[in-house]
Amino acid sequence: MRELAKSNPKDFVDAFPEGVIIDEAQKVPEIFNALKMKVDTEKSKPGKYILTGSSQFKLKKNITDSLSGRAFFLELLPFSIDELVNSGLPINDPYDLIFKGQYPPLYDEERHFIPDDWFEAYLDTYITGDVEGLISPSNSSAFKKFIQLCAIHSGSMLSMDSIARGIGVSAPTIKSWLSILQQSYIIHLLEPASNSLGKTLVKSPKIYFVDTGLLCHLLRINSKEELLLHEMKGSIVETFAVSEMLKNRSNIGKKGNLTYFRDRTGFEVDTIADWNHTFAIEIKSTSQADTKASRNLKKYLELKADKHTKAAIFYLGDQTMRINDIEYVSYKDWGTFSSK
User: Nearest Cα to 238, choosing from 258, 221, 252, 220?
Assistant: First the structure.
């Protein structure tokens, strides 16, 4: 089939008058022009041709070059909690989920992947496949070390100079590599909120991994029990919550619209979500609805003096409740909350 698509892409496309899903489409660049001619000359419904591929940089380049203005990109991030629950998988302990991560192959009952082995193979394939051509081959080992250093910073403010010194490459190289990780959905950079409070705010983004299973693997956390005692537990849970918000927003076709607030004195609110309403959100690794956790939110609301901004605390408890105008949102309800 691939040889036919290469030698005669027009006939290949014509062989599927009802539409077709073409996997690994980037391996046959010739097919993109044939699809362009087809959609330009025939009226058809959106979604008639679906293109997928394991090397998304090459896939996106071919689509951008040949199908600009004719294609819609769907971002398929790892499973969300809602997707797992809706598939019939019970989620009884959030730390089991945080440690395992939510990449789809790890939930394939027929394959029985060992997560640690799968993550190692995933990283090797990512560096030798997806990133091939984007970095110098001589920098492959440095790039892997760079990913590991990014893991140490997940949930905290990004310091490109610090990472550059740790690897021995320039800050512009780190900036380029961060862009690669972000475009391939390994990390997400949360930009600081704009200055609307008359305060001097920080300008650096915060870095988050999109999947906590991969993050735990990079941090050499070998079990849920190790995670519970790890010094980065709070940052990992924060990463988990931000990732869930991004996934749930993406799944309903919305932008994440997430920032964070931090001023020069160190006062911080974990996440500012600009959705139908503006929410100031604090993320806690506790399973108890502790009212002391709302101090920063109350201070922020006083500074903001905006009746339209609401406050919420994302925590790992089983029940969602409201205490003193602060909504304590159980991890089980993060998905529905993100659609507000």
Answer: 258
Tell me the per-residue pLDDT of 59-117, one tens digit each, with 9 for 90 and over.
888 888 888 888 888 888 999 999 999 999 888 899 999 999 999 999 998 988 999 99
Distance CA 306, CA 19 (A): 51
Give residue 200's pLDDT.
64
212, 214, 287, 312 from 334: Cα distances, Å = 16, 21, 14, 11
Task: From 74, 96, 69, 72, select the one nearest 84 (Cα to Cα).
Answer: 96
Q: Residue 120's CB: how many other CB atoms inside 10 A? A: 12
pLDDT less than 50: residues of the chain:
none
- DSSP annotation of 157 reads E
Distance CA 119, CA 212 (A): 11
CA 118 to CA 107: how far, in whole Å?
12
Q: Show the tokens assigned to 32.
A: 């993109």
Count of H-run helices and E-run strands, the chain:
15, 11
- Which pairs with CB-CB distance under 8 Å and at least 24 residues apart come from 114-123? 115/213, 115/217, 116/217, 116/222, 119/213, 119/214, 119/217, 120/217, 122/214, 123/147
Using a 10 angstrom Cβ sphere, with 0-12 exposed, 13-18 middle and 19 or more buried, the burial of residue 225 is exposed
The pLDDT, as a whole number, for residue 75 is 84
For 289-329, give the DSSP string.
--GGGGHHHHHHHHHH--TTEEEEEEES-S--EEETTEEEE
Q: Give the C-alpha separation, 287 to 321, whole Å.
A: 13
DSSP for 33-44, please give it. HHHHHHHHHS--
> What does the alpha-carbon distance between residue 190 and residue 258 come to, in Å, rounded to a whole number?
7
Say if residues 32 and 67 touch (Cβ distance below 8 Å).
yes
Q: What is the DSSP letter of 281?
A: E
Crossing angle (nearest 10°) for helices 140-153 and 171-183: 80
Q: What is the pLDDT of residue 202?
A: 87
